[in-house]
Amino acid sequence: MHRDDLKSLFDQQAAGYDRQWEKTAPIRQCLQLLLEPLLAGLPEQAHVLCVGVGTGVEMAHLARRFPGWRFTALDPSGAMLEVSRQRAHAEGFAARCRFHEGYVEDLPTEAAFDAATCFLVSQFIVDVDARAAFFRGIASRLRPGGRLASSDLSADTASPEYAVLLQGWMAMMSGAEVPAEALERMRHAYAHDVGVLPPERVEAILRAGGFALPVRFFQAGLIQAWISQVA
Would the pTM of this model clear 0.70, i.e. be above it? Predict the structure, then answer.
């Protein structure tokens, strides 16, 4: 999907995004629970880059858990970023945040961050080389030893196992009251507009993007997550 089309899609969804996915919150909460100890060794005053911050749910969780951390919230969707900003003000951590509408390459190039998060973002970059370049852009902005927590839709779509996972995933979404037309759009997108790759290929892309030892620490349905470190 073209960048402008993706930005427009998320601009349209921003106001109701959290409400739409409210019933899938246990997936996010489990990821957050497992992520905390993997990031707990960062400095007390760590500066974290949140790539594709969306509505800021994960950033808010980290802000509550680590009250000394500062955040740069990055998203190309101005509407999503505004929801994130409102959340930060409502929860009282906006003073620790900077909000930037745009892409990784729009940020200064110095290595200013101790860690980065990138949840369900890189899957929208279908071209493998461009996806590796995206991660290189993140890696270049992390301090030596900086960590990346990332997640994406990931599966071997050519395998018989994928059909089982996809059926269960769609049934779960239906049970979460995602409209039927939205489910059909998702099914089409997974086949044509989203880079759903086997986990081993995602890990190879992370390595090509400058990250060492990408370790899978979470899977729920089609979502898998990794913790990596700048090589």
Answer: yes
